[in-house]
Design a protein that fits this description.
By secondary structure, this protein is mostly helical. Helix content is about 65%, strand content about 5%. It is built from five helices and two strands, in the order H-H-H-H-E-E-H. A two-stranded antiparallel sheet has the order 1-2. Strand 1 and strand 2 form a beta hairpin. Helix 4 packs across helix 5. The N and C termini lie close together (about 10 Å). The model has no long low-confidence stretch (mean pLDDT about 95).
């Protein structure tokens, strides 16, 4: 589990830098600067829980597994974001975007979280 936690934390940080760099490009920043916070490492590391969940739900269709992962990611994002926001250290703020909930989660990210959950499933079931 420790290996998977470190793997997921590292991959999560890389995906976030890629995503924010792409976002910068779309908004006219030619340098494509990507950003993240070290606070995100343990949050992304929690994606290691996908492997034991997958082992229990392996027989259900992929689309339903993706929906389960999406719900889990939203729950983790909301829970961790609420705690970090309480301490004034939340590295993200969606309060000025549409489809947001308390500035902590964005409902329009559902397809992204769906694909991310399935990506982590694939990575984790191929490792260790």
């Amino acid at each position: 589990m420790k290996h998977n936690f470190l793997l997921c934390g590292s991959i999560g940080l890389c995906l976030e830098v890629f995503w924010t760099g792409l976002h910068s490009l779309i908004h006219g920043e030619a340098t494509m600067t990507g950003r993240t916070s070290l606070l995100m490492f343990p949050i992304y590391g929690c994606a290691a829980l996908i492997k034991p969940v997958y082992q229990k739900i392996v027989s259900i269709p992929t689309a339903l597994r993706g929906c389960i992962y999406t719900a889990g990611i939203y729950a983790a994002e909301y829970f961790s974001g609420s705690i970090l926001k309480h301490f004034g250290i939340c590295p993200w703020d969606y309060s000025k975007t549409p489809f947001q909930v308390k500035g902590i989660i964005r409902l329009d990210y559902a397809p992204l979280w769906f694909l991310t959950g399935l990506l982590f499933e694939k990575i984790l079931t191929k490792s260790s």
